[in-house]
Amino acid sequence: MSDLLYSEEEEALRRAVRDLLADRCDAATVLARAEAPAAEGPHDRELWKALTEGMGLAGLLVPEELGGQGATHREAAVVLEELGRAVAPVPYLTSAVVATEALLACGGSEAAELLSALAAGRTVGALAVGLATAPGAPFQDVRHDAGALHGELTGIADAAGADILLVPADDGALYAVHTAQ
Fold first, then answer.
1. What would the pLDDT profile of 53-98 be if each residue is shown by its tens digit?
2. Is residue 38 assigned to a domain?
3. Looking at per-residue confidence, does 145 or 40 come out higher?
4. Could you tell me the CATH number of the domain that includes residue 59?
5. What is the extent of the structural domain holding 172?
6. Is 73 part of a structural domain of the chain?
C-alpha cells in the first residue's frame, strides 16, 4: 500500500510553487486578466517562463534523458494543486501533463524532440481531443490522407495558446501540427 501523505520533497515543491505564485500571480492580477484578456493570449507568458525556465516544472513528467525531471504524477499533482489554488493562467495541465503523456506513449525521435521542447517550456502543446469527449469514447474523426489531415475539431482545451496541436488521426498515429501553419 502506498503512502498517501506528501513527502518532505513534495511539500518543499509545494512551498516553492506557492511562493512563486504569491509573488507573480496575486488575485487582483488574475481578476484583471479575466476581465480584460491580454493581447498576448490566454496565458501569462512571464509566469509560464518563471515556472518552466526558473523551476523546470514543465518537464516534471519528462524522463531525464530527454531534458526533463523524471518525476512522478504525485509531483505533477502537487504543482497542479497550487496552480489551481492561485487560478494561474498557464497551460500546465494541457501542455506539461496531457500533451506530455500523449507524446510519452508514442516514442520515437520526433516525439523525443517535442518532449524536450515541452520540458524546456519553449513550446506549448495541446492534445486535440474535444473537451466533451468521454473517457474511452472515440475521438472526433480526423482523416490522414496523402500526407494531409482532414477534419474539424472543436472544443480543444488551450488550443488558442498552443504552439503545437497533437492530433490523433484515423490511422492510429498522433500528428504534431504547428499552429503557426
1. 999 999 999 999 999 999 999 999 999 999 999 999 999 999 999 9
2. yes
3. 145
4. 1.10.540.10
5. 8-178
6. yes
For residue 2, what pLDDT is reported?
66
Residue 3 covered by a domain: no
Matching residue, cell 500523449 = 102
Compute the distance between CA of residue 81 and CA of residue 135 in angstroms, rounded to an integer: 22
Q: What is the pLDDT of residues 86-100, one digit of tens each?
A: 999 999 999 999 999
Query: Whose grid coordinates read 496565458?
Result: 43
Classified as helix, coil or strand, 170 is: coil
C-alpha closest to that of 163 among 105, 110, 99, 106 = 99
Note the pTM of the prediction, 2 decimals.
0.92
Segment 168-177 mean pLDDT = 93
Radius of gyration of the chain (CA): 17
